[in-house]
Amino acid sequence: MIEMQGVFKKYPDGNDALKGINLVVDQNEFVYIVGPSGAGKSTFMKLIYREEKPTKGQIVVNGFNIGKLKQRKIPYVRRNIGVIFQDFRLLPKLTVAENVAFAMEVIEEPKKVIRKRTNEVLSLVRLKGKANAYPSQLSGGEQQRVAIARAIVNNPSLIIADEPTGNLDPETSWGIMELLEEINFRGTTIIMATHNKEIVNKMRKRVIAIEDGVIVRDQERGEYGYEV
Ligand SMILES: Nc1ncnc2c1ncn2[C@@H]1O[C@H](COP(=O)(O)OP(=O)(O)OP(=O)(O)O)[C@@H](O)[C@H]1O
């Protein structure tokens, strides 16, 4: 589902963020991306959902050659990818239900489908009771659950999560991880960048370590491997 061959990313200011990435991620894998600050993890994730373009090399996601994608085709690829950030990025003036529904409105789903599916995903993240609340009225963990609901509402085959527990306390973080595991169990591939040693060591998934723009380790049922 994701294939990278000889991928380099040099930012316009000359920063070499990635220097020759090769990897394959299959459908339904759960992959942790670990590594020191500035190693290139976020850049790696941004290339997958085409927030950034590679300077060299090939990236294929769900059969699309991401680097060569025409501007007008980008929405088709993004529709199949849910993205979750450390800082939630909800729309503050929309309610919980509206934040989730918005992701379906932009792809012009019928109103009836939107209502039904919004209810479904809010149940899944256990937030049905907060449907009419605004993000500012929610805890951090609840806001992240809304962001997860929004990410999965269009049934993406892939979720990219960039430090999804970075702003959350340990207990809340576990709740988020259980949710991501359940989503993975239902068939969605998950790629998650994290600095959370406890989570990586307990959940035992594939671990890819990036240092200074290259993959230095790729382990099944791996460990975090750094002191924090
Ligand atoms: N938009 C940008 N323009 C120029 N350089 C950038 C840009 N974004 C990132 N970089 C540089 O690219 C390198 C990799 O950054 P990246 O954000 O991918 O690292 P990271 O592993 O995600 O770090 P962290 O764990 O701190 O989030 C760093 O040297 C960073 O300064």
UniProtKB/TrEMBL annotation:
Its topology with respect to the membrane? Peripheral membrane protein
Report any one BP term from Gene Ontology.
cell division
Residues covered by the ABC transporter domain: 2-228
- Single annotated GO MF: ATP binding
- What highest taxon heads this organism's lineage? Bacteria
* Stored PROSITE patterns: ABC_TRANSPORTER_1 (PS00211), ABC_TRANSPORTER_2 (PS50893)
Q: Belongs to which family? A: Belongs to the ABC transporter superfamily.
- Report quaternary structure and partners: Homodimer. Forms a membrane-associated complex with FtsX.
Q: What is this protein called?
A: Cell division ATP-binding protein FtsE
Organism, as annotated? Chengkuizengella axinellae
Ranked from the top, the taxonomy reads: Bacteria, Bacillati, Bacillota, Bacilli, Bacillales
Q: What would be the name of the gene that encodes this protein?
A: ftsE
